[in-house]
Amino acid sequence: MLAKCLIINVLRLIIVILFFIAFLNITYTARHTAATVVFLANRVSMENVAKILGHANLNMTRHYAKVLDQSILNDMENVERSFRQ
How far is it, in rounded angstroms, from Cα 17 to Cα 19? Predict the structure, then answer.
């Protein structure tokens, strides 16, 4: 009887640990998606993204926010337009 209760408790603990790991992964993915797809793709500055995410410095923000190829293309097109004028 005691062994059965211990096994059930261990299984419950394993399930709780797995849910916690899944929660951490979902949180990381949501922050990364917000930084790249929502903020940077809509031309929000890296400094403002850092404030929105609650980071003390830009290094942590750079961890979450990769520079999008499309934003680089848009910036280069803006530079090209300014040279033509």
Answer: 5
